[in-house]
Amino acid sequence: KTVAIVGCPFRGGQAKLGVDNGPIHLAEAGIVGQLEEIGWKVAFDGHHQFEDIHTADDPPIGKLKNPRLVSKVAESVARVVGGHAKNGQLPVTLGGDHSLAMGTISGTLDTYPDACVIWIDAHADINTVETTDSGNIHGMPVSFLLGIGSKVPEFSWVKAALKPERLVYIGLRDLDSGEKRLLKEHNIKAFSMHEVDKYGIGKVVEMALDHVNPKRDLPIHLSFDIDALDPSVAPSTGTPVRGGLTFREGHYICEAIHETGLLVALDLMEVNPSIDDAESVCQTVAVGCSLVRSALGETLL
Ligand SMILES: N/C(=N\O)NCCC[NH3+]
Ligand SMILES: [Mn+2]
Ligand SMILES: [Mn+2]
Ligand SMILES: [Mn+2]
Q1: ∠173-237-58 over CA atoms, to 5°?
Q2: Rg of the chain's alpha carbons, rounded to an integer?
Q3: In the structure, what pLDDT confidence band is assigned to residue 54 with cuts at 50, 70 and 90?
Q4: d(CA 205, CA 76)
Q5: Ligand 1 test: best mutation among 136, 245, 272, most atoms within 8 Å of CB?
Q6: How far apart are CA 127 and CA 148, in angstroms?
Q7: In angstroms, rounded to a whole number, what is the distance separating the alpha carbons of residues 166 and 189?
Q8: pLDDT score of 51 more than 80
Q9: DSSP E strands: which ranges in the chain?
Q10: Is 176 exposed, middle or buried (0-12, 13-18, 19+ CB in 10 A)?
Q11: Is 89 in a helix, a strand, or coil?
Q12: How far is the CA of 164 from the centre of ligand 3 (A)?
């Protein structure tokens, strides 16, 4: 089977410079060769060039920042990821900020309408137009995918194709109050770091799969925000939050999902190589590549 690497140099969903250079750093760390090493054919047609819409033409809509740019880029990512999935390839999207997941998951659901989404993140990224404080759209992709919150015409291309019962979170530890309310209101299953501590990662992954994929017969889209890991493990990211997943917990999730044989798409998001020193960047990029390898079948034995 072929992996299609989708490099998405994009930072419009948030304010920090640098996260758009995540893909190039992951590519230069050798992810393509590493995947070939473990037996994959790898298609990498270069990093997608997203022409920048000048801010002058993209004033905020309410609080939403860079709305037209974010929407346009996510829509093109949906086409790219959907195209690879339709061709029977496994798209691996390298971000770039997590607003891109509006596109990647839309693309996956276009080909695999019954896919479930496993969202690994310190954050829920489920803010609506009403609940967002910052207007940074990387904190909102899940609300668009679920079709909750008031509609924004510029995002009308996003089909509300994700059902709440097909979504599960692991790693949460930094939610806005509005997000906590929305998770409850929509009965969305979430395993925070409290549950990871309480049950251990093995049981948490099993419970997460039991919830969204009880018969282990549904395709899986794994959307991994590198900030789910503890900042000591992955420091170069825009919104680090203490008390995250260990190196092994992060890898266990990826290994266990590979073991299901159901993975159809992967996102590795929010690696920001501008954040701080070279050693932190090198460590974070290496962890990112390692997680991708684990999700695609690299085993310890
Ligand atoms: N990294 C982020 N999401 O995953 N930042 C946005 C969260 C703020 N509520
Ligand atoms: Mn491509
Ligand atoms: Mn995120
Ligand atoms: Mn996050």
Answers
A1: 100
A2: 17
A3: low
A4: 32
A5: 136
A6: 9
A7: 9
A8: no
A9: 2-7, 41-47, 90-94, 116-120, 167-172, 189-192, 220-225, 263-269
A10: middle
A11: coil
A12: 17
Report the C-alpha gap between 99 and 11 in whole angstroms: 9
Quote the CA–CA distance of 104 and 93 in Å, as a whole number.
7
Determine the distance separating the centroid of ligand 3 and the alpha carbon of 301, expressed in angstroms.
31
pLDDT of residue 18: 97
Total residues belonging to the chain: 301
- The ligand 1 site (C-beta within 6 Å) comprises 98, 121, 123, 125, 138-139, 176, 225, 227, 238-239, 270
Structure confidence at residue 53 (pLDDT): 63
Interatomic CA distance for residues 237 and 16, integer angstroms: 10
Catalytic residue (one of 179, 227, 249, 298) = 227
Task: Dump pLDDT digits (tens) for 253-299.
Answer: 999 999 999 999 999 999 999 998 999 999 999 999 999 999 999 99
Distances (CA, A) of 2 to 5, 122, 222: 10, 30, 17
How far does the centroid of ligand 1 lie from the alpha carbon of residue 22, in Å? 16
Q: Looking at residue 100, what DSSP letter applies? A: G
Record the pTM. 0.98
User: Is 176 a residue of the active site?
Assistant: no
Closest residue by Cα to residue 286 from 28, 15, 5, 6: 28
Secondary structure in 3-state letters for 127-145: CCCCCCCCCCHHHCHHHHH
Q: What dihedral do alpha carbons 236, 240, 242, 243 form, nearest 10°?
A: -80
In this structure, the residue with its CA closest to atom 4 of ligand 1 is 123
